[in-house]
Structures are given as structure tokens and as C-alpha cells.
Design goal:
Shape: extended
Low-confidence stretches: 1-26, 43-61, 394-405, 696-716, 990-1004
Structural class: alpha+beta
Number of strands: 33
Region (Disordered): 1-56, 1013-1049
Largest sheet: 3 strands, antiparallel
Strand content: 15-25%
Helix content: 40-55%
Mean pLDDT: 77
Pfam families: KH_1, KH_Vigilin
Distance between the termini: 23 Å
GO cellular component, one term: high-density lipoprotein particle
Function: Appears to play a role in cell sterol metabolism. It may function to protect cells from over-accumulation of cholesterol.
Domain K Homology: 142-210, 214-282, 287-355, 408-476, 480-549, 554-622, 623-692, 749-817, 829-898, 902-971
């Protein structure tokens, strides 16, 4: 293997610092060009000169190393994977080499030695070369395998943290190392690779195992009551033991009920530590005794002290351990354990600490408690900050503060009819919130379900009186308001409201103090409610009655029966006739749809105008006539012409007449002409003339069945009311069988019935894209016709066989009952309830991934809506569902809020180095602590002002326990953190010195020399921007010709 020198930033900086003058030197001190760049020795140079030149190069300049290295690997013939000598430089071997170059970024060149071994020259960055080497060994060289057995407990040290050690070992030895899984009992590690790599990997693994053989772990069980004597006050004794023995001793904290003490370290160190621990234990077991004393449960916390410091102080002063019963125990017995002559002093200390605090109670009405606590506990926090030694329950020192608070607060109650409560609150609480903010008071309005008339106002005395006055004024104003019900037919409601509410907006703008409420369309109610000041309500009522009177006057309807075939003539060409009648009579004229069987034309407007319009429509009908002309059916097609050319020209020429030919193949000779009398006669003449032209013989002859012609027989016109031949069915056979067949055929004739169904249910019966009505038609084998929406008819037609109609009618009525029941249930489910909750509690109520709020929604079968980000009322939570379920859900949320309000938050300082360890992989550790102590933990985000600040939130007693546990974990983990930092200090690369030197020297002025060739002669100064004269370090190396000739792949 061969390599070239690598230039590092460090060596370059040292080289530069040796050539550049220090700050403050004069220009004469600058090096000359020959000093900075000494010439290479010539062959004839004297030994002294050579020695002197060599010294000049080596005295100041250290060897430069290139960032690109070159290594040569040899693969013997017997270990080559591809041995086909005819395919050297091509085939699979060449493809593998190209793939390795793409994957690693290194440059490969292959050549064959005389012994047919393969030589591979690899160039590139160090890490790229190492990766390429591993790929070459695994893909171009045959693999061998071996196993090495080491103790199972040493496997994790071979793997290393996150598998880093194993990866490094595989890269270093160019092998593949397989370690059995933890649940596998085997201790055999399998290695695959080249023979040389196998030996190296085996050696490295055995070295790691040998190092771990020197370490040991010992577990000693010591009674929990003797742990304080082993740790000493403030853990001093256990610290001294660890310093003396060099072993690590882990004693479980007081909050963890474990007796096992774990000692780790070198075998000799562990043995020494175990001996010391057992010695202390035996001594204390023999020399200590106990006494039990009764101390009030409420005073235990003063004996314990903040974070257990008082217990540690007593242990430090007297050498006596004080055992306090758990907080969940009702016992008041405190046990003192220690040497007999020290117990008296310790007992005095315990009583002194227990009685060092006094409790005073302050009498304050319950409604004042939240003012004393303040928003988010601000008032209470301010008092405790001013008096840091005060612990809540409070001392008599706070009496003056609370008395002042009581004197500054007042309350009053007013009686207001519950029907006015929602108007006092206003839409979205706008009225009551304004009063609260303006007068700095709290107003409690009872909920609707309490049906209470008492409204309570609390706050500053002056603000209370002002708020009371304003609320009473609002109530008086509302009592003077009047509510009036107007009877307006529901059919006029939509017209009064107007498109998008435009017309009703004009009315409301005209009477801004009046509230106008229309009933829901589904209720089919005619009552419109007006509410507001008495005079304004009366004016608005008269105005709306006037609007309704005009609508009634203009809403007179008249139906005119006109033969269906004449509707087109009533409309006129391009709608000219009907449009003219509408404009001249100021009426609305509606004609039935073309596919409808109705012949009624509906005229709407004032009565007189409707009468005029009817007369004009009947006049048009009277002017129209209908005649029939007999023309042989064989001539019909020729009279119609190509695409109706002939008949269309006649209809256009005769002013809008309509010519109807019978169906082709029916054999009917009658042609119907409809239209104005004069135009119909004209069209008849033209049609007959055209028929005469099409007939070959000049006179029409009637051909009989026997083939004889009877010129004297003229075909009589057929009775128009007689049934058509195509509609007649002839049945022949025995009489009784014919009658039965007639009855059977009549049973197959469809029958139509009408069913009364409320108009508002039609769309539900039709269903999405007609799915509902199609299903019913398929199920009952009938046709169901729903009237068009503009007709607003309650009649639904069912057409089908008589024996199917009854079932279809029952099915339709059953569906109506279901829909009506759904409407009633939907109305009950739409009950809404709002609850006011501080937005800070919203995430807690929602829970992790919505777990808590989903449980409440599922349990009570309600919909709970939280406010949007841009919503004005961020504290309003809306609950929708059945009334009793919505109330139950509200109570559940309120219970959660009450529980959250009892919680406190406390900040503690935890070394940021142990945060990740406490949080654990994917938060497993922190979730375990939060579940165990029922608290919430918040660690600082990156870039926080205080990276060590951790917030613990929960019930006071649980917060204290969680803080003790966290501090114990910090104490346990900090030693590991310090140890890791020490290791990193030795493994960290020594970088950054050049940057530091640059900062101290300030901005560079460049490299300056004296007596350069370009200053004294005619030589040109080098171009500093030229990459050829001054190539960049680390730039790609130009491809050079290989000593083995051009590449063959």
C-alpha cells in the first residue's frame, strides 16, 4: 500500500505562521523570496550547501499532505472471484468496478501481475478509499468465514452505541460481522471476509472482550433504613467512597422502595467498595437504636423541609436518620434511628423544625377567594415572593393584606326575569363582556336550566354600583319592549325576504330597533314575530301589512283551460304572443311543461289584469281551427320532403300553422292542420295541390281488396272520436275464454293513483341523484312521479299495475313516517350549549391525539366544537346533541377544568446534559414519569434563554414527588454525562486552531516577500486568480496517464 502526503489546515496554518512576520515588525524583517522559496539543490552542490538547503526546507515547513490519497490492493489468483483471463477489463468484473466507483466516488484502475494476481489502484478521499476497499474485498475477492466466541454480556460493547463500533470495525477490517440477537443464547460471533480481514477482526473482538473482563458489577442488598448512613448527609459519604475506590456506587433514592445497591467498576475497585459498604452497614446495625415520637401530620412537611434538606441537615448535625411515614399514610409516628447518645439532640431538632412554623386562618367569604388568588394565581404568587419564608397555609402576616382586599371588594344581587338574560348577555357575550371590562367587575348570570332570577355582581364597590345601574337600565328598556305576532301566509314569506334577504334588509334598515323573526320553513307556520320599542313595532307591523296587502292584490290566480295542441300558438313565434300579453296586462303567465298532461295556463296578478289576460288568450284560441285532410298515406313521405323541406315551407308561408302527419306505416290517411282559420285554409289548398302533383293519374282511385276499381265510390271521412286501428286488440276464441283474456289484459293496463306527501319531504324521497325513488320503483315495480319543485304540490303520482299500487302506496307512506321521525329526532339532536373555559385548558381537555375529548364525545354522544384561531370568543366551547346528554358532557368538561385549576406549576433547574436521558427514546422515559406521578413535564426548546429550566405541572403533593425523582435522576445521570465528556475530550479532533490564530491576527494582508524575481527582472508577476498557477486544495485531480496503459472498461 502506498500513499502521498496530505495537506491539512493545521499544517498549512503552521507553515504560514512561520513565514509571515508578527504584527509590528518593520518591512526589513519580511522574508526574501529565496528564504521563503529556497531553490532545489543542484547535482554539483557541496555537501555543506546541500545540508544548508535541506535545513532551509525542513526548518520552517512541515510536510504537506494531500486530501486525495492513493492505495494499491492485491488480490491473489486463488482468491479472485472472476478468473476468466479472456474477459479482463470487460464483463462482470468491469461492471462491478464501475458500480463501486459510482457508489463510493473513488477512482479505480486495474492491472494483471505476472502471477495473474489482480492489482487495483484506488484514488480519492480517505473515507471514499476505505469504502471502496470494503466493496472490492466483498465483491471481487472470494470470501472466507470464521467464528469467535466471547461472553454474551460483552456483545454490546462490540456493537457500541447505535452500532457505531461495529460499523467502524467492519470498515477497518473490510469484513462482515454478524452478532447473534439478544434473545439468542449463542455466544458465537460470525465473521466473513478475506483471510487477512478475518484475522484482524478476530483480534479486535478479542481485545474488546479482554478489556471488559477487567470490569465487574456487584449488587448488594442493604435494608432501606440504613441507606441514609451509607450515603451520608447530602451524599457526602458515598461520594468519598467512590473517590477512594474509583468504583461507581448507585444507591436508590428515598422515593424508590428498593434495597439493592449497585456497584460497577474494575474488579478490585468493586470488591473494595463492597467491603466498605458492608463495614458501614454492620457498624450501624450494631450501634444504632430507634425511638418513635408522634408529630402532627400537618407538621411533617416542615420536618422534611424543601427537597428533604431539613432531614439532611439533622443527619449532618447529629448523625441520626429521621424516617417520615409516606404522605398517603395516616400515621403520625416519626422514627429516629441512630446512636443512643445522639437521639436526644436529634429529637430536639425534630420538634424545633416541626414547631418552627405557625398556621393562621383568615376569614374571607368564599366569593372573595378567586380575587385573593388572582388571575392565574398572580396575587398569591406576589405575596409569597414578598415573604419567601411564608408557606401556604398562610401566617398571620397576611391578615392585613387580605383585610385590605376584603375592604376593597363588594357585591350586590339584582333580580331579572330569566327571559331577558340572553339579551343582557348579547350575541357571543358582547353586552356582558363590555360591562365587565368597562366597570372591572365580575357578573354571574345563572344558566337557563337553573331558572333563577338572581344576577350577582362582584368587584370594586364603585364599579359594582355602576354595573348594577347599567344592567337595570337595560332590563327596564327590555321590559318596555313589545312583541307582536303578525299572521302572514307562509307562501308570502320568501317574497317578503327577497333574494339573498335583500327586501327584508330594507325593512330592517328602515326600522333598526325592531327585530323581525320568520318561522322555519319546515314548521309551516304563518306567524312572523316583531320585537322592539312599542311605537317602532306598531309602525313596522303596519308597513309589513301594507306589503302583504299588495302581494295579496297582485297574487290573484286564474287558471285558463286551453287545448294542449294550441299552447304553441299561444306562445307565438319566439314567445312573441305570450310576452306581449304579459307586458300589456302586467301579469305572470305560466304554461305547463311540454311533457306534462295538464292543459291549464295559470295567470297571476291583479284580478282585473288577470281577466284581461284570460280574454286575450281565449281570443287566440277561438281564432284557431283544426281540420283534417284525407291524403293517401303512400304520398305522405313525398309531401313531407327531405328532412321536412316541403311541409316546413308550407307552415312558414302560412303564418305558423301546424301540419301533423300520422305515424309512418300506420296506414292512416288523415293529415291534421291547426292554426288561424284563414291560414289553415291556405295551407290545406297548398297541401292538396302538392298531393295532386305527386299522384301519377290525375284522379285518385280507391283500390279494393279484390283489385277492382270503383270510380263512383268516394271514401267517407272517418269519425275523429273513433278508436284508432293501432289501439284495437282483437281476441278470437270461445266466449268464456275471450272474456277471461279481456280481464287479464285489463289487469295489465297501468293505473295511476295520487298519494298525499308533504312537499318538504319530496327531496328526501327522491334521494341523492334519484337513488331513493329508483329503489322504491324497482322494489314495487311501479312508476313514481314527483311534481316539479316550482309547483310546490303535495301530490305524488304512482302508476303501475293495480295489484302493485297498494304495496307501493304503503311503502311510500312508511318512508314518509321514517322521514318525519328523522326530522323530529334531528330537531332534538340540534340542542346547543356553550361553556366558558380558559383557552389555556383547551389542549388538556382535548388530550393527547384527542383522546380525552373523543372519550367525552363517544360517552355522551354529542358534538363538541372548540373555537377557531380567528374566533373572537376563544373561551367558548360549543356542545351540540340531545339536551340531557349535552348537559352531562358540559358537567364532565367542567369537572376536568376544576381539576386543572387545582394544579400548580413549579420550575426546577435540571442540567441540560441529562435532559435527553430523562426523556428517553421517543419520549418513553418522560411518559413513564408523567404516568407514574400524574404530572406534566415541559422541557425547554432549543435556543431557550435558560436551557436548564424544566416546568412540572400537577397537584402540589405529586409535583413535589416528581421533582424529587427528577433531581435524583439528574444526580444519577450527571456522572455518566461528565464521564462521556471526558472521553470525548480525548477523542475529539484537534481542530479550530487555525481559525483561532486568524481571529487573533486580524484580517490577512496576504503573503509578502522581498526581492521577488518579478520586481527585479523582466519576469511577469504570477496571476493570483489563475487556478493553474495557484490550484485550490482539495480540487479534483486531473486524470493522468496510468503506468499500466489506458483503462479497459
Amino acid at each position: 500500500m502506498s500513499s502521498v502526503a496530505v495537506l491539512t489546515q493545521e499544517s498549512f496554518n503552521e507553515h504560514r505562521s512561520g513565514l509571515r512576520p508578527e504584527k509590528g515588525e518593520e518591512e526589513d524583517a519580511l522574508p526574501t523570496y529565496k528564504d521563503a522559496f529556497p531553490p532545489l539543490p543542484e547535482k554539483a552542490a557541496s555537501p555543506e550547501g546541500t545540508q544548508e538547503t535541506t535545513n532551509a526546507w525542513t526548518s520552517k515547513i512541515r510536510p504537506l499532505k494531500s486530501s486525495v490519497i492513493t492505495q494499491v490492493f492485491h488480490v491473489p489468483l486463488e482468491e479472485r472471484k472472476y478468473k476468466d483471463l479472456n474477459q479482463f477489463g470487460e464483463g462482470d468484473q468491469a461492471k462491478v468496478c464501475v458500480d463501486i466507483m459510482h457508489k463510493t466516488g473513488a477512482h479505480l484502475e486495474l492491472s494483471l501481475a505476472k502471477d495473474q494476481g489482480l492489482s487495483i489502484m484506488v484514488s480519492g478521499k480517505l473515507d471514499a478509499v476505505m469504502k471502496a476497499r470494503k466493496e472490492i474485498v466483498s465483491r471481487l475477492q472470494t470470501q472466507a468465514s470464521a467464528t469467535v466466541a466471547i461472553p454474551k454480556e460483552h456483545h454490546r460493547f462490540v456493537i457500541g452505541k447505535n452500532g457505531e463500533k461495529l460499523q467502524e470495525l467492519e470498515l477497518k477490517t473490510a469484513t462482515k460481522i454478524q452478532i447473534p440477537r439478544p434473545d439468542d443464547t449463542s455466544n458465537q460471533i460470525k465473521i466473513s471476509g478475506t483471510k487477512e480481514g478475518l484475522e484482524k477482526a478476530k483480534h479486535e473482538i478479542l481485545l474488546i472482550s479482554a478489556e471488559q473482563d477487567k470490569r465487574a458489577v456487584e449488587r448488594v442488598n442493604i435494608d432501606k433504613v440504613y441507606h441514609p448512613f451509607l450515603t451520608g448527609a447530602f451524599n457526602k459519604l458515598v461520594g468519598e467512597m467512590m473517590q477512594e475506590t474509583g468504583a461507581r456506587i448507585n444507591v436508590p433514592p428515598p422515593s424508590v422502595n428498593k434495597t439493592e445497591i449497585v456497584i460497577t467498576g474494575e474488579k478490585e475497585q468493586v470488591a473494595l467498595a463492597v467491603t466498605l459498604i458492608k463495614k458501614v452497614y454492620e457498624e450501624k446495625k450494631k450501634s444504632t437504636t430507634t425511638i418513635a415520637v408522634e408529630v402532627k401530620k400537618s407538621q411533617h412537611k416542615y420536618v422534611i423541609g424543601p427537597k428533604g434538606n431539613t432531614l439532611q441537615e439533622i443527619l449532618e448535625k447529629t448523625g441520626v436518620s429521621v424516617e417520615i411515614p409516606p404522605s398517603d399514610s395516616s400515621s403520625e409516628t416519626v422514627i429516629l434511628r441512630g446512636e443512643p447518645d445522639r437521639l436526644g439532640q436529634a429529637l430536639t431538632e425534630v420538634y424545633a423544625k416541626a414547631n418552627s412554623y405557625t398556621i393562621s386562618s383568615v376569614s374571607a367569604p368564599s366569593w372573595l377567594h378567586r380575587f385573593i388568588i388572582g388571575k392565574k394565581g398572580q396575587n398569591l404568587a406576589k405575596i409569597t415572593q414578598q415573604m419567601p419564608k411564608v408557606y401556604i397555609p398562610m401566617t398571620f402576616m397576611l391578615l392585613s393584606t387580605f383585610t385590605l382586599k376584603v375592604n376593597r371588594m363588594d357585591f350586590t344581587e339584582i333580580s331579572v326575569d330569566p327571559k331577558f338574560h340572553r339579551h343582557l348577555i348579547g350575541k357571543g357575550g358582547v353586552n356582558i363582556n363590555r360591562i365587565k371590562e368597562l366597570h372591572k367587575v365580575t357578573v354571574r348570570i345563572p344558566p337557563d336550566n337553573e331558572k333563577s332570577t338572581v344576577i350577582r355582581i362582584e368587584g370594586d364597590p364603585q364599579g359594582v354600583q355602576e354595573a348594577k345601574k347599567e344592567l337595570l337600565e337595560l332590563t327596564t328598556r327590555m321590559e318596555n319592549e313589545r312583541t307582536k305576532d303578525l299572521i302572514i301566509e307562509q307562501r308570502f314569506h320568501r317574497a317578503i325576504i327577497g333574494q339573498k334577504g335583500e327586501k327584508i334588509k330594507e325593512v330592517r334598515d328602515k326600522f333598526p330597533e325592531v327585530i323581525i323573526n320568520f318561522p322555519d320553513p319546515a314548521q309551516k307556520s304563518d306567524i312572523v314575530q316583531l320585537r322592539g320599542p312599542r311605537n317602532e313595532v306598531e309602525k313596522c307591523a303596519k308597513f309589513m301589512q301594507k306589503i302583504v296587502a299588495e302581494m295579496v292584490e297582485n297574487g290573484f290566480c286564474l287558471s285558463v283551460p286551453i287545448f294542449k295542441q294550441f299552447h304553441r300558438n299561444i306562445i307565438g313565434k319566439g314567445g312573441s304572443n305570450i310576452k306581449k300579453i304579459r307586458e300589456e296586462t302586467s301579469t305572470k303567465i305560466d304554461l305547463p311543461a311540454e311533457n306534462s298532461n295538464s292543459e291549464m295556463i295559470v295567470i297571476t296578478g291583479k284580478k282585473a289584469n288577470c281577466e284581461v289576460a284570460r280574454s286575450r288568450i281565449l281570443a287566440i284560441q277561438k281564432e284557431l281551427v283544426k281540420i283534417e285532410v284525407s291524403i293517401p298515406s303512400k304520398l305522405h313521405n313525398s309531401l313531407i320532403g327531405s328532412k321536412g323541406r316541403f311541409v316546413r315551407s308550407i307552415m312558414e308561408e302560412c303564418g305558423g300553422v301546424h301540419i301533423h302527419f300520422p305515424t309512418e306505416g300506420s296506414g292512416i290517411d288523415k293529415v291534421t292542420i291547426r292554426g288561424p282559420a284563414e291560414e289553415v285554409e291556405k295551407a290545406k289548398q297548398q297541401l292538396l295541390a302538392l298531393a295532386e302533383e305527386k299522384v301519377s293519374p290525375p284522379a285518385e282511385a280507391l283500390i279494393q281488396e279484390n283489385g277492382e276499381a270503383d270510380a263512383g265510390d268516394v271514401k267517407e271521412p272517418v269519425d275523429p272520436n273513433a278508436p284508432k286501428k293501432c289501439d284495437v286488440i282483437v281476441i278470437s276464441g270461445r266466449k268464456e275464454r275471450c272474456e277471461a283474456a279481456v280481464e287479464a289484459l285489463k289487469a295489465l293496463v297501468p293505473v295511476t293513483i295520487e298519494v298525499e306527501v308533504p312537499f318538504d319531504l319530496h327531496r328526501y324521497i327522491i334521494g341523492q341523484k334519484g337513488s331513493g325513488i329508483r329503489k322504491m320503483m324497482d322494489e314495487f315495480e311501479v312508476n313514481i312521479q314527483v311534481p316539479a319543485p316550482e309547483q310546490q304540490s303535495d301530490k305524488i303520482s304512482i302508476t303501475g299495475l293495480a295489484n302493485h299500487l297498494d304495496r307501493a302506496k304503503e311503502g311510500l307512506l312508511e318512508r314518509v313516517k321514517e322521514l318525519q321521525a328523522d326530522q323530529e329526532d334531528r330537531a332534538l339532536r340540534s340542542f346547543k350549549l356553550t361553556i366558558t373555559v380558559d383557552p389555556k385548558y383547551h389542549p388538556k381537555i382535548i388530550g393527547r391525539k384527542g383522546a380525552i375529548i373523543t372519550t367525552i364525545r363517544t360517552e355522551h354522544d354529542v358534538n363538541i366544537q372548540f373555537p377557531e384561531k380567528n374566533d373572537e370568543n376563544q373561551d367558548q366551547i360549543t356542545i351540540t346533541g340531545y339536551e340531557h346528554k349535552a348537559i352531562a358532557a358540559r358537567d364532565a368538561i367542567q369537572a376536568l377544568v376544576d381539576e386543572l385549576e387545582e394544579m400548580i406549576s413549579e420550575d426546577i433547574t435540571l442540567d441540560s446534559r441529562v435532559h435527553a436521558r430523562i426523556i428517553g427514546a421517543r419520549g418513553k422515559g418522560i411518559r413513564k414519569i408523567m404516568d407514574e406521578f400524574k404530572v406534566d413535564l415541559r422541557f425547554p426548546q432549543s435556543g431557550a434563554a435558560d436551557p436548564n429550566l424544566v416546568t412540572v405541572t400537577g397537584r402540589p403533593e405529586l409535583v413535589d414527588e416528581a421533582i424529587d425523582h427528577l433531581l435524583n435522576l439528574e444526580e444519577e445521570y450527571i456522572a455518566d454525562a461528565v464521564e462521556n465528556e471526558t472521553k470525548m475530550a480525548y477523542t475529539r479532533p484537534h481542530g479550530g486552531s487555525a481559525a483561532g490564530m486568524d481571529e487573533q491576527r486580524g484580517p490577512s494582508k496576504g503573503f509578502v516577500v522581498r526581492e521577488a524575481p518579478w520586481t527585479t527582472g523582466n519576469e511577469k508577476a504570477p496571476d493570483m486568480s489563475s487556478s493553474e498557477d495557484f490550484p485550490s486544495f482539495g480540487a479534483p485531480v486531473a486524470t493522468k496517464s496510468s503506468p499500466w496503459g489506458p483503462k479497459r472498461f
